């Protein structure tokens, strides 16, 4: 039973690869039939669990309620999407976001549920580090706006360089991953090589210090909650 449940959970989650917009698109009829089959299996597993569990215990368990709600939402969304598709009305499958509920809330997924609970308990404790990181990012973005915004610089594509504050925040956020390095600093570097010091300081503070600190806090708190949970 556990193997069958895991197989259909994996199959249900894999549908995102084949549904529009898809990596390997399949006809809507094929994906919808597979999804209906998965939901029927989930409903059968839930019905079987209800028969071997006391009624008041079954209905007090929020995991069972979540699975039932997810099945109803998925079927409703599938029906609405199918009708709209018949009339050539563009729409999206919003119920995809509820599919991980099946992975977490079945009785067979106890270990996954424990890991998910540890992650949930860790989130409040890393909020302070995240807020400090965001404060640093916003302050560096403000400095970049003051340093480069009035220089009338342009990117290689001929676009204004560091003129919009939100655009600067996004570019520097990407720079934390070094994905746009050194391209993001080249217009300023071409204007004056001393401006490279700004980007070096930004990378040292936010990439090397804050990201290391963030990772350490996440790891230590997750390990602490996992130890408490497993005793």
Describe what is shown at a glance.
The protein is mainly α. The chain contains nine helices and no strands.
What does this structure look like?
The chain has 231 residues and is mainly α. The protein folds into two domains: 1-108; 119-230, Helix Hairpins, CATH 1.10.287. The protein is built from nine helices and no strands. It has helices spanning 2-14, 28-51, 55-60, 62-86, 100-105, 110-148, 165-176, 186-191, 196-230. Helix 2 (28-51) packs antiparallel against helix 4. The two termini are 28 Å apart. The mean pLDDT is 88. The chain crosses the membrane at residues 26-44, 65-84, 126-149, 161-182, 194-219. It is found in: Membrane. Residues 1-16 form the signal peptide. Its main location: membrane. GO terms for molecular function: monoatomic ion channel activity.
Morphology: flat
Q: Could you state the order of secondary-structure elements as H and E?
A: HHHHHHHHH
Helix share, percent: over 70%
- Low-confidence runs of at least 5 consecutive residues: none
Write out key terms for the chains shown.
231 residues; mainly alpha; Helix Hairpins; 2 domains; 72% helix; flat
How would you summarize the topology of this molecule?
Blueprint: H1 2-14, H2 28-51, H3 55-60, H4 62-86, H5 100-105, H6 110-148, H7 165-176, H8 186-191, H9 196-230
């Amino acid at each position: 039973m556990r193997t069958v449940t895991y197989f259909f959970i994996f199959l249900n989650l894999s549908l995102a690869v084949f549904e529009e917009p898809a990596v390997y698109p399949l006809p809507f009829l094929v994906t919808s039939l597979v999804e209906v089959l998965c939901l029927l299996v989930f409903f059968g597993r839930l019905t079987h669990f209800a028969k071997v569990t006391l009624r008041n215990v079954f209905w007090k368990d929020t995991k069972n309620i979540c699975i039932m709600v997810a099945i109803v939402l998925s079927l409703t969304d599938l029906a609405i999407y199918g009708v709209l598709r018949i009339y050539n009305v563009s729409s999206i499958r919003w119920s995809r976001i509820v599919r991980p509920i099946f992975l977490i809330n079945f009785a067979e997924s106890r270990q996954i549920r424990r890991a998910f609970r540890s992650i949930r308990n860790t989130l409040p404790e890393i909020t302070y580090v995240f807020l400090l990181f965001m404060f640093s990012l916003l302050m560096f973005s403000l400095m970049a706006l003051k340093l480069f915004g009035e220089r009338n610089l342009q990117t290689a594509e001929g676009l204004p360089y560091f003129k919009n504050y939100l655009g600067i925040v996004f570019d520097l956020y990407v720079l934390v991953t070094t994905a746009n390095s050194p391209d993001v600093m080249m217009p300023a570097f071409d204007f004056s090589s001393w401006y490279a010091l700004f980007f070096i300081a930004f990378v040292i503070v936010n990439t090397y210090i804050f990201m290391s600190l963030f990772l350490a806090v996440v790891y230590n708190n997750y390990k602490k909650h996992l130890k408490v949970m497993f005793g």
